[in-house]
Amino acid sequence: MKTKHIFWGLLFVSIGILILLKNIGLLYIDLANIWKFWPLVIILWGISYFTKSQIVKGFIAGIAAIILAVALFAFFNSSYNFICNAFSIKDDDFNFTINENTDTSNYNESYSSKIKNCEFNLNAGAGAFIINDSTDDLMNAVTQGVKNNYEFTRQDAGDKSTVTMTMKKRQFVFNDEHNKNKTLIKLNTSPVWDLNLDVGAAAIDFDFSPFKTDKIDIKMGAAALKVKLGNKLNATNFHLKAGVSSVDILVPESSGCEIRCNTALSSKAFDDFIKVNSNLYKTDNFDTARKKIYLDIDTGISSIHVSRYSFD
């Protein structure tokens, strides 16, 4: 058997076993710092070049694969726990409350009925971000953490407005409640929205179901993301690029939905989707539905869950 076959085979088998043991509650070992030993893989790979024995090469490749599998699993697991612990988030509760006793800042942009389209750009570092409510303004934001830490710019051209919200100082102190970056954003329901959101390590809860969303582009680092999409337009394009992450996406069952995914070492659960090929999934009503949602998911080591919901 070729060395590369041994390496990749044991890598995927080891990761699968670790995830299985974790899911059924049989993995109790603290792996938080084991991921730091991943350079051993490079060392072992280098040692393999000093021997001509295929048996020795195969043995070294197997050990390297197991070490890398444990390191990757430990990194993902510790990153996910890090995010959830930092923001006190439970699996079924991504909400947070702005504490008025800490440093808070308020921002708003006025709305005019002539605005039909709005592009919103968010450039931020680590933090917790939530969109789940509307406003009579074009948009407003309440932030908790460093005082006046965001800069807003706005450009209006005809019936389109472009608003950019940029974090100035991106320091993040996890052990000081006053310095945790928390941002609550509200949007107006009238315009058609084009959203570009670029954040770092984050806890994110976005409910876009009340809004007319044409395009949503999210870039994030290690993150816990929950997104609910709506059907206000005939087509919604959603693109996600993420590193180590936990992703939960909800789409309305009345809309046809297509998922194109490029996921490395990720677990995927696409409820009520038909697998077309290894990278393409569709709902059974995709071809006939008048309204469609296109999901483009590009992630590293992630847990991805896409499910459908019905309107009350």
- Would you report the number of β strands? 19
Please give the share of residues in helix. Answer: 10-25%
Reading side by side through the largest sheet, how are the strands ordered?
A: 5-6-2-8-10-12-18-14-17-16
> Low-confidence segments, ≥5 residues, pLDDT <50?
86-96, 172-179
Q: If you average the pLDDT, what whole number results?
A: 82
Shape: globular
Total helical segments = 3
Summarize the main sheet.
Answer: 10 strands, mixed
Terminal-residue CA separation: 57 Å
Beta content: 35-45%
- Class inferred from helices and paired strands: alpha/beta
Radius of gyration: 22 Å
| Domain tally | 2
Element-level helix/strand string: HHHEEEEEEEEEEEEEEEEEEE
What does this structure look like?
The chain has 312 residues and is of the alpha/beta class. The chain folds into two domains: 85 residues; 206 residues. Helices cover 21% and strands 41% of the residues. It is built from three helices and 19 strands. The strands form two sheets. Strands 5-6-2-8-10-12-18-14-17-16 form a ten-stranded mixed sheet, with no helix packed on it. Strands 1-4-7-3-9-11-13-19-15 form a nine-stranded mixed sheet, covered by helices on one side. A hairpin with a 2-residue loop joins β5 and β6. α1 runs parallel beside α3 and α2 runs antiparallel to α3. The chain is globular. 34% of the residues are buried.
